[in-house]
Amino acid sequence: MNRPRLEEITPRNLDAALGIRVRPDQEHAVEPVAHSLAEAYVRPAGVAWPRLIVDGEDARPVGFLMAFLDIDWHGDGTVFRSGLWRLNIAAAQQGRGYGRFAVESVAAEIRRRGGKELYVTWHPGPTGPEGFYLGLGFRRTGETSGDQTVGVLELP
Known about the structure:
Structural class: alpha+beta
Shape: globular
Number of helices: 4
Strand content: 35-45%
Oligomer: single chain
Distance between the termini: 28 Å
């Protein structure tokens, strides 16, 4: 595997991003890429950070991520957070380190902006990503966001 990299979503790679599909048993736990891009579009500039994950010399699309940057977590101006909003790794590409790469990439971007914590939410359950996030060092905060568990990773 070559080192994966992130690409901004552009007219050139939009169809590749929209073609990313997770496993059928994961579809309940993550929105499709089209939904994520629509959400990014309606947010204030700079809040959503969508990226296509590609690998190889041919820039083969293997996943999609979207970070949130400095959002007003409670909507009252008291708490601002940054983190991983969406992570869609193509079904056939899972288990190859692309998810870890995505989390590390978001962590690097948050650090670059001066952040000290990376937040994520996940749907609990046997087919959810809890084990993946806990294995990367996230800890549960004890909060929920809707029906999702909130986790945080301290960024050294």
